[in-house]
Amino acid sequence: MTVTLEPEALLSHLHKTDGSATYSYAGFTVIGAVNGPIEAQKRDELPEEAIVDVVVRPAAGVGGTRERHLESILQSTLRQIVLVNNFPRALIHITLQITGTPENEYINGRLGQANVNLSVLPALLQTAVLSLISASLPMTATLTSTSLASVTEDGRQHLVTNPTARQIEQSRSFHVLAFTSQNELILAESEGCFSIAEWDDVYSAAHRQCCTSVPTDDTDTLMDEGLPAGADLKRFVRSTVEQKTDSDLYWK
């Protein structure tokens, strides 16, 4: 499978859902579908707000504890940006189907896979947000997410944005951070060993990718300074929504 160097997205392509999106980046492809707000079952409904139900389906096989863990993270994160108080006793159902994953690499003669559950989380979050936008559900903000790994090469430690399975396997720590469109940290998940100073570097690198629009001319500057240069996710979300809006209003 060819790794997507730049993020790609397609909105509102599923016709039997209220909103849908397909997102591809860093080797992952996820299809999202949103239905809601719809009536919740009596035993599940909340009297003053809507339920946000997230279902994650793996690329192969059936879901297990890994998917349940991801669902709990996604649900708690999305509830912070969706205006659930606008829809009491209702249900917002989000289905995320993973259809593509990065190719596995062989490390020391054995198949190397990321031993953490977090590598697919940025793609799931981005797909969920784009699907909610497609469904025209009110939100306080959008969000962007990225992953970073702290790896050691030639005796020097540096950060890698959107690391491969091999890099995650060999890294000291792995991090997933998400920021709102108001540049506020909304999610931080980390695994491995790291110091406070190292986490501060991770935060700065993730904030730079998710919150700051970097001009094309400044990309070489970031690389020269030893900073990981990734896709401008905030500009990507904005341009994706603008293109969809222009397409919908083309007939007017």
Describe this structure in words.
The structure is a single chain. By secondary structure, this protein is α+β, with helices and mostly antiparallel strands. The chain is 29% helix and 32% strand. The strands form three sheets. Strands 1-2-3-5-4 form a five-stranded mixed β-sheet. Strands 9-8-10-11 form a four-stranded antiparallel β-sheet, with helices on both faces. The longest helix has 16 residues, at 196-211. Mean pLDDT is 86; it is low at 106-115 and 218-227.
Our measurement of the CA-to-CA distance between the termini, rounded to an integer number of angstroms, reads 40 Å
Low-confidence stretches: 106-115, 218-227
Q: List the helices and strands in order.
A: EEEEHEEEHEEHEEHHH
* Helix vs. strand class: alpha+beta
> How many strands, what sense, and barrel or not for the largest sheet?
5 strands, mixed
Helix percent reads 25-40%
State which percent range the strand residues make up.
25-35%
Number of helices: 6
- Could you report the average pLDDT, rounded to the nearest whole number? 86
Radius of gyration (CA) equals 19 Å
Dominant shape = globular
Oligomeric organization of the protein chains:
single chain
Total strands: the figure is 11
Strand order of the largest sheet: 1-2-3-5-4
